[in-house]
Amino acid sequence: MSAKPAHNELERETGYGTDLWRVIAAPVVWALHFLFCYVYGAVYCAKAGRDAPLDQPTIVVIVASLVALALIGLSTLQIWRVRARSLTDNDFEFEHNTPEERHRFLSHVALMLCVLSAVAVIYVTIPMLYLSTCR
Amino acid sequence: MTDTAAQEQRLAKAWARPKGWAYFSDVNNSVIGIWYISAAFAFMLFGGVLALIIRTQLAVPNNNLVSAETYNQLFTLHGTVMMFLFAVPIFEAVAILILPAMLGARDLPFPRLSAFGFWCFLIGGVFVCGSIFFNAAPDAGWFMYPPLSTEQGGIGADIWLLGLSFIEVASIAAAVELIVGVLKCRAPGMHINLTPAYGWYVLVVGAMILFAFPPLIAGDFLFEMERAFDWPFFDVTRGGDPLLWQHLFWIFGHPEVYIIFLPSIALLAMIIPTFAQRPLAGYSWIVLSAIGTGFLSFGLWVHHMFTTGLPSISLGFFSAASEAVAIPTGIQLFVFIATVMLGNVVRTVPMLYCLGALATFIVGGLTGVMLAVAPFDFQAHDSYFVVAHLHYTLIGGMLFPVIAGVQYYYPFATGKLLSRKLGIWSFWLSFIGFNVTFLPMHLTGLLGMPRRIFTYGALRQWGDLNLLSTVGAFIFAAGFLLFVWDCVRPKSSEPNAPRNVWKAGTLEWAGKVPADDWGLRSIPQIDSRYPIWDDKTLLATIDEGKGLLADAKEGRRETLVTSVLDAEPTQVLRVGTPTWLPMLAAIGLGGAFIFPVWKLWWPTLGSALFFLAVVLCWLWTGTAEIPEKQTKDIGDGRRVPLYVAGPQSTGWWAMFITMTGDLTAFLAVLFGYFFFWTIHPDFPPIGIDGPGWQWPMVAAGLAVVTWMATLGARLTNAAGQVTLSRGLLVTGIIAAALTGVALMAGPWTTGLDPTAHSYPAIVWGLVVWIVLHLMAGMIMQAYALARSIFGKLTPRHDADLWNVTLYWHFTGVCALLTALVIGGFPLLQ
C-alpha cells in the first residue's frame, strides 16, 4: 500500500520551494502589470483629456514592463536550478509517484508560465509604443 | 457472515438512499449530479425552443410571426438561459457527478452545499424562465445595458437581476465545493502531478468563478438599488455612467466564456486519451495552458466595449491581451491533436463529438482573433458576424464537448450504454445543421445585418441567407432531439454496460456496474496518472476492501481528506447525510430574492429570516461535530484524526474561498467609487459635503476593535481561557454594532442623499454593503458564543471560532478600507 517510486528512481531532496502559490507568481505579475497599465492609462486620459499626448504614460508603461519582466525573470531564475527544468527535455511527463517528481512538475509548469507571462507582458506593452495621444 | 460481507452491509447502510418522497432530500453527489444535469438540459431545451422561434421569425423578410416586444423577450431569454441556466451550471453539474469518483473520494466534502446549490439553481431557473409565459420576461438583451434597462418599466429587468443573482449563489457554492474537493479529497498518493487533467481544470475554473462572478453580483446590487430606490449609479443626468455597468458586466462576462469553455475542454482531456489508448501527450502543457488561460481571460473584458469610445490606449491593451490568450488556448488544442495523432484511435460516438468540437471551436477561435483586432471589431460589432462567432465558440467549445461527455459518462452514471447508431445520426445532423445555421451568419453579418432586430426588409438581400440559417437550425434541433431521446428512452430491458466499458485508465471507471451508493469499495493508493492501466491489481485491491476506509463501523458517511500537494491522508471527514435543510434554505433564500421583484418587503424579510433560521439549524446540527474519539483507524495500520480545525480543515478553506469571492465583490463596488472619481472633474462634486472624516475614522477604529476582539477570542479560547474568550466575543458583537452605527452616521449627519447624485449613492452603497456584512459577522460571533456555552466549541475543538475569525479578517479589512476611502479620499482632492 505504501507509495512506490517507479523506475527505481533515487529519492532526492525535494525542497519546499515550488508550491501552488509559486506556480502562479509569474501570471500574477502579468495581472498586476496589466491592471496597472490599464488603470494608469485610463485615469491619465480621463483626467488629461482626449488630446493629451501619451509621452509620460509611454515612459511609465515601459518602466512598468521592465519591472514586470525583471520580476518574472527573478521567478524564472529561482526555478532554473530545479532538475529537468528544460522546456523540451525528453522526460516531461512527470508521472512518477514521488514528492520530487511533483516538485519538478510544478517547477516545469511554473517555468512555462514564466515564458507565457513574459510574452503577454510584451504584447500588452506594444500598443503603447505606437500610440501618441489619448484619442 | 464474513468480515467483508459485514463491512459491505455497514457501508450500504451508511450510504443508503432515502426512499419514497424522501428521495428529494438526498444529498449524495451521484444523485445531485444527475438532477443537476437533467435540470440544466431541460433549461437548455427551453432555450433551444426560444431559438427556433427566433429563427422562424427571421426566416423571411417582413415576417410577423411574433411582435417586436415578444422577439425582444425571446432573444434576451435565449441568451440568459443558455448562459446562466445551461452553460455554467452544466459545468457544476458534471463536476459534482464525476469528480469524487475521479479523485477516489466517496463524496465531495460538502454534499449538503451541493444540494443547496442545486435547489437554488432550480428555483431561480424556473422563476426566470417562467416569466415569459406572463409576458414579463426581461427584454433588454442578455447583458442588460442601461439606460434602456434602468429606464424601462415592468418587472423584466428585476426578474433578470434578482433571479440571476440568486442563481449565482449556486455557482459560488459549487466553486467552494469543487476547489476544496480537488485540493483536499484526492485518493492517497495522488500527488498534484498525478491528478487527472479534469481536476486541474476544475481547480482553475473554480478559482476563476471567485474573481468573475462577484463583480456581476456587485453590479446587480448597484443596478437593483437604482431600479428599486432610484440611486443613480448609471443615470448620466445625476452623475452616473452606464459604462460602469458594462465594465462590471464584462469583467464577469468575458472570464465567464472561459469558465464555460475550460471545463468542457477538460472533458476532452479525459475522453481523448481513453480512445487514443495512450496518456495525454503533454500533461504539464495542459496544466500550463489551463492556468495561463485562466489568468489572461481576465484581461479581455474591454474587447466587448471597443465601440464605447474608450481611449485608444485602453483598447490597445485589451486587444493585445485578447491576442495573447490565443497562445494557451491553442496549446490545448495542439495537445489534443497530438494525443490523437500519437495514439490508435478507437472509433466511438464520444470521439466523433470530440473531433467535431475541435473543428468547430477552431473556426470560432479564428474569428475571435479577428474580432480582437479593434478596427475589424468596429465594423463587425453588433452584427450577425458576432452572433456567428460566439455560437461557434460556445457550441464548439461547450455544447459538443458536453455532449461528448454525456455520451462518454452515460454508462458511468446509469450503467447503460447509449445507442451507437442514434449517436452517429445525432452527431451528423447536429454538426451539419449547426454549420448550415451559423456559417452563413458570418456573411449575413458582413452584409450589415445587425443582431437583435425582429425583422428586416426584402430589399436588404438578407433573405436567402436567413432562410438557409433557419433550415439549418431545424436540422440542428432534430439532431439534438435524437440525442435527448437516446438519453431518456427506457433501457431497463437492455443489459448493463460492462465494467470500465471504454477501457479507460482513470479512477472513475473503477466502480462496479450498477454502481454502489458508497462509490468505491475501498480507497486505493494511487501511483500513477492512469491507475487502471498501470496497476493491474488495482481493481482487485479495491474490491477486496484492501484499500483504505473499507468499513463504516460507526455507521457514518466518511471520506478521506488528504494533503494538498502529496495527498497524504490527514483526516477522516464525516460528510452530511440526506436532509431537507438545503432545500428549505434554498426556498427561503429564493423568497428573499424573488419577492423584491414586486417590492413585497415584508415577505422578503420573512423569507430572509426563514433562510437564516434554517441555515443556523443546519450548521448547529450538522457541522463541526465533536467526534466520539480523536482518531480513527482507516486500514493499512494508519490512524488519522476525525476533527481538525483551522487551515487543516475543509470548513476553513470553504470560508476562505467564499470570502475571497466576497472580497472581489466588495472591490468591484469600490471600483465603482474610483470609477466615478475618474469621470467627474470635481469629486466629491461641488456642493455635496460629506460624509466628513470624523465619523468614518470612529468607524475605522471600532472595526479594528471588533476584528481584534474576535481574533483574541480565538487565541484565548485555544489557551483555555474560555470565560475571557466569551467576554471578547460579546465585546466583538457590541463593537460590530457600533461600527455599523458610526459608519452610517457619517453620510447621515452630513445629509448625503443617495438619490441626488452618483457620489452620495456610491458612498451609501459602500456603507450598506459593509453594514450587511457586519450584521452577518455579528450573527457568527453570537453563534460561536452559543456553541461555546453549549459545549460544542471547546479549547481543543474550535473549528467554528477559526472560521468566524477568518470571516472577520476579511470583513475587518473591508470595513477599514471603506471607512478610510469614504472619509479620507475626499481630503486628498
From TrEMBL, chain A:
The chain crosses the membrane at residues 20-46, 58-80, 105-131. The keyword Membrane applies. Keywords: Membrane, Transmembrane, Transmembrane helix. This is Transmembrane protein. It comes from Devosia psychrophila.
UniProtKB/TrEMBL annotation, chain B:
One of its GO terms (molecular function) is heme binding. This is cytochrome-c oxidase. Residues 653-827 form the Heme-copper oxidase subunit III family profile domain. GO terms for biological process: electron transport coupled proton transport; oxidative phosphorylation; respiratory electron transport chain. Its EC number is 7.1.1.9. The chain crosses the membrane at residues 34-54, 74-103, 115-137, 157-185, 197-217, 257-276, 283-304, 324-345, 352-374, 386-410, 422-445, 465-485, 580-598, 604-622, 652-675, 695-715, 727-749, 761-785, 806-828. One of its GO terms (cellular component) is plasma membrane. Residues 15-510 form the Cytochrome oxidase subunit I profile domain. It holds the Pfam family COX1. Pathway: Energy metabolism; oxidative phosphorylation. It catalyses: 4 Fe(II)-[cytochrome c] + O2 + 8 H(+)(in) = 4 Fe(III)-[cytochrome c] + 2 H2O + 4 H(+)(out). It is a multi-pass membrane protein. The keyword tRNA processing does not apply. It comes from Devosia psychrophila. It comes from the Bacteria. Keywords: Cell membrane, Copper, Electron transport, Heme, Iron, Membrane, Metal-binding, Respiratory chain, Translocase, Transmembrane, Transmembrane helix, Transport. Belongs to the heme-copper respiratory oxidase family. The keyword Transmembrane helix applies. InterPro entries: Cyt_c_oxase-like_su1_dom, Cyt_c_oxase-like_su1_sf, Cyt_C_Oxase_1, Cyt_c_Oxase_su1_BS, Cyt_c_oxidase-like_su3, Cyt_c_oxidase_su1_bac, Cyt_c_oxidase_su3-like_sf, Cyt_c_oxidase_su3_a-hlx. The lineage of its organism: Bacteria, Pseudomonadati, Pseudomonadota, Alphaproteobacteria, Hyphomicrobiales. Its main location: membrane.
